[in-house]
Amino acid sequence: MSEEEKPLSAWQRYKKNLGNTRPWDLLKTDLARATDATAEARLNLCKSCTHYIKATHQCKKCGCIMNLKVKLADAECPVGKWNIATPEERELTNG
Prior knowledge:
Layout: H1 10-18, E1 33-34, H2 36-47, E2 52-53, E3 58-59, H3 66-69, E4 90-91
Antiparallel strand pairs: 1-4, 2-3
């Protein structure tokens, strides 16, 4: 089996599903945040998704706590329900 054909490990799948953001990005005050309206729209999409765990507010695909992840402008849904925020959907924080 070639390198390209090898199945991904659980850790590799987790990192792939996270996309470009990481949970600790919320602690970085200089990163762009999504507007409140964008974060609310994203979270509503998550809440209607079969991968959303209501008890913990987590996504089964990426493992993130979604009421926090939706606030990151550069975050995106691992199953494509919402994307990285457009310039109009961003607000810069004062770092």
